[in-house]
Amino acid sequence: MPGSFAASPHRAEGSRTPRLAGVAVGVVIAGGILGVYLSTAHAQHQVGPDRHRNPVLSGKVVADQTVGVIDFGPDDNGDAARNDPGDHPLMLVGQGTSVDFAAIPDSELSSGTPDWTADQMSGGTEIFIYVPTGKCLSPLGTQRLQLTHCDLGLAQRWQQLNQEMVLGQAIAQYANAQTGACLTAPPREPGPARLAPCGKARTRTQEIAFWWSA
Question: Could you tell me the CATH number of the domain that includes residue 80?
């Protein structure tokens, strides 16, 4: 696989300037969405009689980047030659309100379009905003995922687990703060993204990486 990729889930490489022209507008929109909701979310979580069971969620963004969200697992076969048919990771994309892991065209493996803004909150969680729609990655029931109106609630918070380097690539699992289940890709072929119990470190369907940062 040509090109170099992220050394940290909050830093990714390989994007090309011409591909980012359309992304710039989306980044502004995604940033504006969080700005609109900060005061509302803060007030919602400050008020209520049962604050011990519903802790305050921080609305402060400490870092953000626009990236491709990748399931690196199919690329993790123990060799460094990332250009054989067995080395083909999948990218997270929105399809209406649903969310899928799709095949990455060969021409975009080293220079794809970053479609997600990953906002790291001061409490240590992340919020994933799909740039083309400005909506947030959220659970739908116990196993499915969807894109919904961003509200900064617990369902839209993701906690990083088991971060490590594999073949020079930073990977981690991402557990949903409401359900406790992890963002999971199909075993090899493209298909719906889903929630599944978090496996041990290096569970290939849960090896999430960031590529192509804007």
Answer: 2.80.10.50
